[in-house]
């Protein structure tokens, strides 16, 4: 069970020492252009390029809801692209967030964080454009991740 620390700041500039893994949620349509991904793309081109390639080549890979892709952006810094939302808009089928997919992808994050000896850093994933509720996501993080987790609330 993970202990979650909440701080004010920018999740693309994670605090602390050691290897860090920045986690965020993506959609299953290959769209990248609103929300937290803009902050990621301002710092590093690799996460967007990897995500778009992953989506483009999805017929031959694991690009599905619940999948996680890990992209190294620095010597001790990684970004995890989680496929945790169906589509991009709230409509007749509700909000895009898929809690089960986020839960599954967090399992992969847990394994990668242990492998790297990394702490995990994130905004309140799934709660922005995906329309999710933190009260549903926070317990998934606490249950799945067994490494230190820092959640950033941007000023």
Account of the protein in words:
This protein has four helices and six strands; from the N terminus they run ββααββαβαβ. The protein is an alpha/beta fold and 155 residues long. A six-stranded mixed β-sheet has the order 1-6-5-2-4-3, with helices on both faces. A hairpin with a 2-residue loop joins strand 3 and strand 4.
Q: Main traits of this protein?
A:
six-stranded mixed β-sheet, alpha/beta, 155 residues, single chain, globular, 4 helices
Could you provide a short overview of the structure?
With about 160 residues, the chain is an alpha/beta fold. Helix content is about 30%, strand content about 25%.
Radius of gyration: 14 Å
- Count of discrete alpha- or pi-helical segments spanning 4 or more residues: 4
Q: What general form does the structure show?
A: globular
User: Could you list the spans in which at least 5 consecutive residues all have pLDDT below 50?
Assistant: none
Q: How much strand content do the residues show?
A: 15-25%
**Major sheet, described briefly?**
6 strands, mixed
SSE string, helix = H, strand = E? EEHHEEHEHE
How is the topology of this model organized?
Blueprint: E1 4-8, E2 20-27, H1 36-43, H2 46-56, E3 68-74, E4 77-85, H3 99-116, E5 119-122, H4 134-144, E6 149-153
Helix pairs in contact: 3-4
């Amino acid at each position: 069970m993970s202990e979650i620390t909440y701080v004010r700041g920018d999740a693309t500039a994670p605090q602390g020492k050691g290897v860090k893994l920045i986690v965020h949620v993506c959609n299953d349509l290959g769209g990248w252009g609103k929300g937290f991904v803009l902050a990621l793309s301002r710092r590093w081109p690799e996460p967007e390029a990897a995500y778009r390639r992953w989506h483009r080549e999805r017929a031959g890979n694991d690009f599905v809801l619940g999948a996680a892709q890990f992209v190294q952006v620095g010597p001790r810094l990684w970004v995890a692209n989680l496929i945790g939302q169906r589509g991009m808009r709230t409509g007749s089928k509700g909000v895009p967030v898929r809690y089960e997919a986020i839960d599954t992808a967090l399992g992969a994050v847990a394994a990668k964080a242990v492998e790297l000896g990394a702490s995990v850093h994130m905004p309140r994933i799934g709660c922005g454009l995906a329309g999710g509720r933190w009260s549903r996501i926070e317990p998934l993080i606490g249950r799945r991740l067994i490494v230190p987790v820092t959640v950033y609330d941007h000023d």
